[in-house]
């Protein structure tokens, strides 16, 4: 290699080394850029839900006037319906006349849950009437509910949980709409058995488990139970009470009163095509209202 070439190469290498060293010093010795302080979000105060209001307690030893009516289907009976099956169907026109009669006699129509609360708070109107519908048939939503809405009234619909949405009974969405409209959805067991003839495990499913499933569907508490076919014994009564229901409906035993010592044995008047709302009952309710 010639001296001239060597001089050029070594000179270039020296220049590169000097430049690199100068840049390195500048990098190390120059102050770091000043970065803005990170923004600190102001914590949002936590909104704590207030504790739910405690349910008023039913104190035993009181008997108050309360009429509870029982319906099943609302609409025309099938052509082949006979006997007790035919009696399950109250025609829509007849049902609407019942509603008009209740209003004419100034009855205060409410749900079963409302009645229990009013009784516990000692402010139940003396002309109180509860309309109940057993089994949860589809016509309760498509026929009964619109008629109730037309008259500005509410009802308690007792459904068999395992039959929800089977085509013959109300769907999940229909039940949610009824509840949202101010009606009450009660539990009429899981499968509608004779509670006197099931073992303890099934009794649990027909009472406590059925309530849990129905509450999950509705997203709200279920406080009313309705005995299948109105049949129960002491063991069934204890199971219903132990499942945290507040009231239970029987069939028959229609005294026209609510005994606070027996909230799980509420009697009802059964309304059929051949059995009207008792005229004496309506007259009594009118007189009670007139005295207030």
List the helices and strands and how they pair.
Blueprint: H1 3-29, E1 63-65, E2 67-71, E3 73-74, H2 83-86, E4 89-90, H3 92-104, E5 108-110, H4 112-120, E6 128-135, H5 138-151, E7 156-159, H6 172-180, E8 184-187, H7 200-218, E9 224-226, H8 234-242, E10 247-249, E11 257-259, E12 269-270, H9 279-291
Keywords:
disordered N terminus, 6-stranded parallel β-sheet, single chain, 9 helices, TIM Barrel, 292 residues, alpha/beta, two-stranded antiparallel ribbon
Please give the share of residues in helix. 40-55%
CATH class of one domain: Alpha Beta
Q: Which architecture name of one domain does CATH use?
A: Alpha-Beta Barrel
Low-confidence stretches: 2-36, 38-52
| Helix/strand class | alpha/beta
- Kindly, what is the distance between the CA atoms of the first and last residues, rounded to a whole number of angstroms? 128 Å
The biggest sheet, with number of strands, parallel, antiparallel or mixed sense and barrel status, is: 6 strands, parallel
Assign the CATH topology of one domain.
Answer: TIM Barrel
Total count of strands: 12
Shape: globular
Going by CATH, the homologous superfamily of one domain would be Glycoside hydrolase/deacetylase
Rg over alpha carbons? 36 Å
Count up the helices. Answer: 9
Provide mean pLDDT, rounded: 85
Topology as a string of helices (H) and strands (E)? HEEEHEHEHEHEHEHEHEEEH
Give the percentage of residues in beta strands: 5-15%
């Amino acid at each position: 290699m010639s001296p001239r070439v060597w001089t050029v190469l070594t000179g270039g290498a020296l220049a590169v080394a000097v430049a690199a060293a100068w840049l390195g010093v500048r990098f190390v010795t120059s102050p770091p850029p000043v970065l803005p302080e990170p923004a600190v979000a102001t914590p949002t105060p936590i909104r704590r839900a207030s504790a739910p209001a405690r349910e008023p307690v039913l104190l035993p030893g009181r008997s108050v006037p309360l009429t509870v009516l029982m319906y099943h289907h609302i609409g025309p009976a099938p052509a082949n319906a006979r006997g007790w099956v035919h009696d399950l169907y109250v025609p829509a026109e007849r049902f609407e006349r019942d509603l008009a009669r209740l209003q004419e006699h100034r009855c205060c129509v409410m749900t079963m849950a409302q009645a229990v609360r009013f009784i516990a708070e000692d402010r139940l109107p003396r002309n109180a009437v509860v309309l109940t519908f057993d089994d949860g048939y589809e016509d309760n939503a498509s026929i009964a509910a619109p008629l109730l809405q037309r008259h500005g009234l509410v009802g308690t619909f007792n459904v068999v949980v395992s039959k929800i949405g089977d085509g013959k009974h109300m769907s999940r969405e229909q039940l949610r709409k009824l509840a949202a409209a101010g009606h009450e959805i009660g539990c009429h067991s899981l499968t509608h058995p004779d509670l006197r003839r099931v073992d303890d495990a099934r009794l649990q499913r027909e009472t406590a488990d059925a309530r849990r499933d129905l509450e999950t569907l509705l997203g709200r508490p279920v406080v009313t139970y309705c005995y299948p076919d109105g049949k129960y014994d002491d063991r069934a009564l204890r199971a219903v009470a132990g499942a945290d229901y507040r009231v239970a409906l029987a069939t028959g035993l229609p005294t026209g009163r609510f005994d606070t010592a027996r909230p799980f044995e509420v009697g009802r008047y059964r309304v059929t095509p051949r059995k009207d709302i008792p005229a004496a009952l309506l007259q009594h309710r009118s007189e009670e209202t007139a005295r207030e």
